[in-house]
Amino acid sequence: MIQLKKVTGFLTSAAITAVLYLAVLYVLQEILQWHALINVTCAYGVSMAFYFASNRFIVFCGSAEREILRQIRRFSVMAVINYLVTVAAVYFVKKYHGNVYTGSIIAGILTTFIAYFIFDRIIFNNRKRGLEKLQKGVKSRGRGESDNACN
After folding, report:
1. How far, in Å, CA of 71 to CA of 24, rounded?
2. How far apart are CA 31 and CA 54, in angstroms?
3. pLDDT of 19-48, one tens digit each?
4. Torsion angle, CA of 149/81/67/130, rounded to 10 degrees?
5. pLDDT of residue 142
6. In this structure, is the dihedral angle defined by the CA atoms of residues 63, 69, 70 and 72, taken in order, positive or negative?
7. Which one of 14, 27, 122, 138 counts the least CB within 10 Å of its CB?
8. Distance between CA atoms of 74 and 96, rounded to whole angstroms?
C-alpha cells in the first residue's frame, strides 16, 4: 500500500534533488563552460548523494545503521542505471535540440517514476522492521497509534 506521507516526502526530495542538479549543472555549463558529459556527471554525483541521504534519513525513516552498506550497494546499482539513462537522454536531446537541460529534465522524469518503487521495495525495505510494525499495529489498534511509515 502506498502511503501518502511517504510519497509526498519522496516527491519533495526528488524536487529538491532536481533543483540541486540543475543548479550545479548551470554553474558548470554556463559559468565554468566545461564539457557537457563532465557537467552532467558532476551534477549527477552531487545530487545523488543528497538524494540518498534525504530518502534514507527522512523519507524512509533512517533504516537500521547495520543496513547502510547493503543500501549503498543497492542504491549505487540504481544510480548507475539512472546515470546511463541520463547521459543517453542528454546526448540525444543535445544532439538534435542543442540543449543539455531538456535532456536532463526528461531523464529526471523517467528515473523518478521507477526510483520510488526501487527505494521502497528494494533499497530501504527492511522485512524484519515491516513484520515488527505489522505485529505492533495489530496489538495497538484502537490506542491512537498511526500506521505512519516513520513510527
Report:
1. 25
2. 28
3. 999 999 999 999 999 999 999 999 999 999
4. 30
5. 43
6. positive
7. 138
8. 34
DSSP 49-69: HHHHHHIIIIIS----GGGHH
Q: What are phi and psi of 52, to 5 degrees?
A: -60, -50
**Residue 8: enclosing H or E segment and its boundaries?**
helix 4-26
pTM of the model: 0.74
Q: Which pLDDT score is estimated for 71?
A: 86
- 22-31, long-range: CB within 8 Å, 24+ apart, which pairs? 22/101, 22/104, 22/105, 25/100, 25/101, 25/104, 29/100
